[in-house]
Specification:
single chain, 366 residues, alpha/beta, TIM Barrel, 9-stranded mixed beta sheet, 3-stranded antiparallel beta sheet, globular
Length: 366
């Protein structure tokens, strides 16, 4: 039997004054889309709905699946490297990216696919049971299920479990303050560095994402890393990569890690070729030249591009091959053992790394 649709009260909305002869509407205040909803109507994300002139979140407590992943898969290279993370998502998204790599989840309008149910406390308990150091809200954007993510993050914090948000950062300032206040780390997907790209390929705008990045970096204790998926002919020009890298260096600081990932044909852009490894290598070089200390390549085998180097003495401290750690030479205090330079991030005692495997798990209902 399929589980019933969840009907959890949502936050960040307000009623709109009814026009003469028109039914009352409500307006969502979660993200810059500012959806105005008639009775029974869902927002662009598909999971926030007007139910009797109140907003509900229809995916609270329900997931498209749980997996144990390496933290490097998020990708986070400076947040307890080698540790494992319990990952899950729901359905829907507040962007409309034509190149979405998880389109079967993020663009799904079928909430009946959400067969795995778990309470916030149940997720925190499962992370401990599976030996995961953190819980990641991923696969689709946790902004759209913020109430569920926040409750889960608070439950995890009570149990000593870290939380990670993998997000596009398309969120209004007030919910952003509440959301990132309870997150220990975030990887924000900076899709490109032009508003034209965001408007044409994502149905969104660049400025709110830049504002979110600056807010996380300067006003929270949430560890921040950034990922840009380089799409051939769309956002991979040297000029745009240079502008993006310079903005990160000047507005966020040189210690914020930047990941350039390879595009693989998907969703509505499946006719494009995949990103060449040489494009990623060129982008990494541009970003390093712009002054960034930690720049990585993703979705390809590139040991140099995956390795964490000391920005002062250039020693190879964490050597990776994709998600697998091949060599680890960084003490728990996060200082280079060769020159004493502090390596930005969060570290602890390093034991046997989790590895590159992805392990699907089922959670008991609670």
């Amino acid at each position: 039997m399929k589980p019933p649709e969840s009907a959890h009260p949502a936050r960040w909305w307000h009623p709109l004054a009814a026009e003469a002869g028109q039914p009352a509407r409500i307006q969502c205040e979660l993200c810059p889309r500012d959806c105005q909803l008639h009775a029974g109507q869902r927002g662009a994300c598909f999971v926030r709905r007007n139910a009797d002139e109140r907003m509900i979140l229809t995916t609270y407590g329900r997931s498209s699946g749980f997996c144990i992943d390496p933290i490097e898969k998020k990708p986070l290279n400076h947040f307890y490297p080698g540790s494992s993370v319990l990952s899950f998502g729901t359905a829907g998204c507040n962007l409309a990216c034509k190149f979405c790599q998880n389109w079967d989840i993020s663009r799904s309008r079928d909430t009946d696919r959400l067969m795995d149910a778990a309470s916030p406390e149940g997720i925190a308990g499962a992370a401990l049971a599976y030996g995961a150091q953190s819980v990641a809200f991923t696969y689709n954007d946790p902004v759209i299920f913020a109430e569920y993510a926040i409750d889960t993050a608070e439950a995890c914090r009570r149990r000593g479990v870290k939380t990670v948000a993998v997000t596009a950062g398309y969120i209004h300032p007030q919910p952003a303050r509440e959301f990132f206040a309870v997150m220990d780390a975030a990887n924000v997907d900076l899709k490109a560095f032009t508003d034209a790209f965001y408007l044409r390929l994502c149905g969104a705008h660049l400025r709110p994402v830049l504002d979110t990045l600056a807010y996380i970096r300067h006003h929270t204790g949430c560890w921040l890393e950034i990922t840009t998926l380089l799409i051939p002919g769309q956002n991979d020009s040297p000029a745009e990569i240079k502008a993006l890298s310079r903005w990160v260096a000047s507005e966020l600081g040189p210690d914020v890690p930047l990941h350039f990932s390879a595009f693989h044909p998907a969703w509505k852009m499946d006719a494009l070729p995949p990103t060449l490894p040489s494009t990623l290598t060129l982008a990494r070089g541009i970003a390093l030249e712009a002054g960034l200390h930690y720049v990585y390549t993703g979705n390809v085998h590139d040991t140099e591009g995956d390795t964490t180097f000391c920005p002062a003495c250039h020693a190879a401290l964490i050597v990776r091959d994709w998600y697998a750690i091949r060599h680890y030479d960084l003490p728990g205090n996060g200082r280079c053992p060769h020159c004493g330079t502090r390596i930005a991030g969060h570290y602890g005692k390093f034991g046997k790394p989790f590895g590159s495997q992805r392990i699907p798990v089922r959670l008991a209902r609670r």
